[in-house]
Amino acid sequence: MSKENFQVLLKELGTTIGLADLSPDDEGYCSLTFDDKIVLNLQYDQRTENIVIFTELGEVRDELALKVYSRFLEANMFWKDTGGGTLCVEPKTMTAMLEYQESVAKMDEVRFQQLVEGFINTAEYWIGYLNELQTGDNLQPDEVIPSMGIRG
Q1: What would the pLDDT profile of 27-51 be if each residue is shown by its tens digit?
Q2: Does residue 108 lie within any of the structural domains?
Q3: Which helix (H) or strand (E) holds 11?
Q4: Residue 127, CB half-sphere, CA atoms under 13 Å: how many?
């Protein structure tokens, strides 16, 4: 049932954003690009009946790794600056990522679209943070992190 619900939710999202034929592949995976900078990966996990959403935020340079790790740990504490997601760094490539999962079993279209929008907004914030950190631009630490809502 949950996989079918995921398929329906993707189809409805596709209709909303002008991609009427949006659907996952046979493995339950779908990828969308927003604003030519955010690749939104959506994967249905049949084992847990969760939807897993993830995106790459950018590369973490070695000389900035300690600062990024520290900020990510702070942000992940009670998910206070992640909108409910989790920030991490893939150690082999030093790629920063944002990840989130939630049960899709009873998810409705409104919740799914809120989740996607909140995830994209959160990813945009962290992409901006990493870009500003790498370029030395003025960081805005008090900027409010968007929420993906309460986990269902």
Answers
A1: 999 999 999 999 999 999 999 999 9
A2: yes
A3: helix 2-17
A4: 16
pLDDT in tens, 48-86: 999 999 999 999 999 999 999 999 999 999 999 999 999
**Contact assessment for residue 44 and residue 113, using Cβ atoms and an 8 Å cutoff:** no
In DSSP notation, 20-44 reads TT----TTSEEEEEETTTEEEEEEE
Q: For the chain, what is the domain count?
A: 1
Q: Is residue 143 part of a domain?
A: no
CB 13 within 8 A of CB 38: no
Paired with 86 in beta bridges are 99
Q: Hunting for tokens 């847990």 — which residue is that?
A: 48
Q: How far, in Å, CA of 52 to CA of 24, rounded?
A: 13
The CA distance from 50 to 111, in Å, is 14
Tell me the CATH number at 6: 3.30.1460.10
**In which domain, by residue range, is 114 found?**
2-135
Domain contains 72: yes
Long-range contacts of 136-142 (CB under 8 A, 24+ apart): none
> Is 152 contained in some domain?
no
